[in-house]
Amino acid sequence: MRFGGLTAVNNVSLSVARGEIRAIIGPNGAGKSTFFNCLTGVLRPTSGHIFLNDEDVAGLPPNQISHKGLARSYQITNILPGATVLENVRVAVQSRHHAWNMLRHRYAFPELMDRARAVLDAVGLRSDEDELAANLSHGAQRNLEIGIALATEPELLCLDEPTAGMSVTETLATVELVRRIAKNLTIVIVEHDMEVVMGLANSITVLHYGEVLAEGTPAQIQANPRVQEVYLKT
Amino acid sequence: MLTLDGVHTYYGKSHILHGVSIEVKAGEVVGLLGRNGVGKTTTLKTVMGLVRPAQGAVTFEGRSIGGMAPHHLAHLGIAWVPEERRIFRLLTVMENLRTGLDRAGVTEAKRKTMLDKIYASFPVLAERQNQAGGTLSGGEQQMLAIARAMMLEPKIILLDEPTEGLMPRMVGQISEIIRVLHREGVAILLVEQNVPLTLEASSRVYIMEKGVVRHHAPAADLRANHAVIHQYLGI
Amino acid sequence: MAIPLEQILIQTINGIVNGMILALVASGLTLIFGIMDVVNFAHGDLVMLGGFVGAITIAATGNFWLALLVAAVVIAVFGAVLQATTLRPLIGRDPLTTILATFGISLVLQKYAIWQWGPSARRIQEPITGNFSLFYLQYPWYRLLTAVLAAAIIGALYLFLRYGKYGIWIRATTQDRVMAQAMGIPVPLVHTTVFAIGAGMAAASGVLFGPLGGVTQNIGLDFTLRAFIVVVVGGMGNLGGSILASIFISLLEAYAALIVSPAQAVIVSFIALILTLLFRPTGLFVPTPK
User: Fold this and answer.
1) Sheet with B2-11: strands ordered across
2) Domain range annotation of chain B
3) CATH of domain A2-69+154-232
4) Architecture of the structural domain at C5-279
5) Kindly report the CA angle at C168 between C163 and C173, in degrees rounded to 5?
6) Nearest CA in chain C to B97
7) Which terminal residue of chain B has fewer beta carbons within 10 Å of its beta carbon, N or C?
């Protein structure tokens, strides 16, 4: 991915198997965010392909990519603050089903409400369903984000620094959450928190200066001297 | 001279600093290490008044500065060299320096002395005096950012990742600059990801993780004991 | 239909003269926007107030030059107070808030002017009367004088920004407000000062324009609108661009006035605005980012 004269992501190739939890890590400026944005359709890659289920989705706008089965959460919380928790999720569920029926009242679709509540169960926010999203704690808001992404019934869930700005307790709760929902999903997660990464990921890709530095299981990455060097700059 | 005591800082609802306590004594070089996203830059920004601490105290030379405006802090003797350098790209090198030099209490003679001294330490800046800041290379901009901060004759410089994005050769130069500043008696709070440079330059080091200080030791101890470093900074 | 060359040349001069007055207004507006992201809907009303203050001063003293000075200073101070009390507390909020605030101020100023000076227009006598022969016309010297004065004021502003001691403060704050603060520059004071400068320049244009178009309470909107078109076409925050754009737009209107009536000629300005927004939204006179 080239920005003017700067190649932010240079020839990055990786493949994620179905059902895997893949973490993408790397020092500051390694190109993680840029890569992530290309993957999720926020940026259009300058060259290369992105195959989702054998279909090239590179360059598609985010809404179309969402319909192909890829959903993402955002680093800056993107919830609807004036709506209740349940509403937030229901709107996302709706995008998958009954998208264009404007004539009936929104509560006339019980199956949507059921699906929304199921999502809230999955992210542990069911007891807050009538709370205004703006009143939730930061950790709960981030989890709601994950819920909204989940509600679009993706095959691939992309999480962008889901534990940023969280306390240790909230972080642990989110890790638990991701572990629970990972059973039926493939997940790509960009994170800085190494404990989260090591605890969650099946495999890790390390980016450095826009290129893939190493790839492997957490144990392999931890043992990799090049990776240690890059992180410790020794 | 500078203390943070139980500081909590938020960006909106994001709770970035969960009770940070740090101290820098006059003339000391103190390192602040930690992986990305742990709150190192936020700590510096809290000191510089760019974000207000929600809880906790920040004191400088005995007086409480939490919530003071940045331009007052600059006059009190705190200078900030941010991570992105933030050179005024459309101002010349000289004009960049003048943003720090044009202060009350600086006589014409003093100006000349300070400029001569800075140009002696950074000859490349002398060469490019009248060039626009945005035309300088990364390393030159870093030098300009530090030189500009020195124009404030600060008592402490908040240095945020000065070696980021620089070639290895320039990293050595930054090390040298830190040594020179230390000799002049300027205290430095050095945020870095470059561990060897930090351990070499600092007398004490704090290690942060997830918005708190997890470890605090003299640099000598950490130089001898790598396990701690690996634990908090490695993979 | 052939248009005589002389008419084209005369309109060129008119365009430049009008352009210079407009530039005086627009440069203040773009300066204010560039440094503090404030879209000042009341700017044209500052022109109007300047005209009134100038008219009163001239009525009292008979001295045009004094009137120009007094108007500029009074409105500059007024602008400073206005910014410090109503706009400074809004810094950092949603831009819509400042737009609403300045719009509200604009309404207040217009009503105040009517209340204070009544609904009738004021006249300002030009300092130099007399015409010279320009082709088949008698062209007033005063019109040339306004262009020269406006150019002089803008020139002084440019020199101040470039070489003046506080010019650096203003330019640094415009480029990076946060870093400027960290360097000890008293940014809130710089903001107030720039607003005052913009207001003073607007007031000066009001006085210069007085002999040409009269001083009425509703000239504000016209100036604000024109100035906005210029600022967008020239590139928001771009001082040189706004000056070039002022002349460009005024010339367009002047030439259009050869074919249609002057009231309709204004349409070309709007066309220029729309085309700029469609194709070069950062401004016609801004170098394309590489």
Assistant:
1) B14-24, B2-11, B55-60, B63-64
2) 2-233
3) 3.40.50.300
4) Orthogonal Bundle (1.10)
5) 150
6) C183
7) N
Instruction: Read off φ and ψ for residue A158, nearest 5 degrees.
Output: -110, 120
Tokens of C28: 């203040």
Q: State the residue for tokens 């561990």.
A: B195
Query: Considering CB atoms only, which of C172, C184, C187 is closest to B75?
Result: C184
**pLDDT at A177 (0 to 100):** 92
The 8-class DSSP code of residue C287 comes to P
Question: How far B79 CA sits from the closest chain C CA (Å)?
Answer: 7
> For the whole model, what pTM was predicted?
0.85
Q: Which helix (H) or strand (E) holds B204?
A: strand B204-209
Bridge partners (DSSP) of residue B92 are B132
Which of B71, B70, B66 lies closest to B53 in space, CA to CA?
B66
Amino acid C21 reads I
Burial state string for C93-128 with b = 16 or more CB within 10 A and e = fewer than 16? eeeeebeebbeebbeebbeebeeebeeebbebebee
- Chain C residues touching B70 at Cβ < 8 A: 178, 181-182
What pLDDT is stored for residue A63 in this prediction? 81
Helix (H, G, I), strand (E, B) or coil at B181: helix
> CATH classification of B2-233 is 3.40.50.170, yes or no?
no
What six digits make up the tokens of B135? 């035309």
Give me chain A's average pLDDT, please: 85
Give chain A positions within 8 Å (CB) of B233.
231-232
Q: For B104-135, write each residue's pLDDT tens digit.
A: 888 999 999 999 999 998 999 999 999 999 99
As a whole number of angstroms, the distance between CA A37 and CA A159 comes to 11
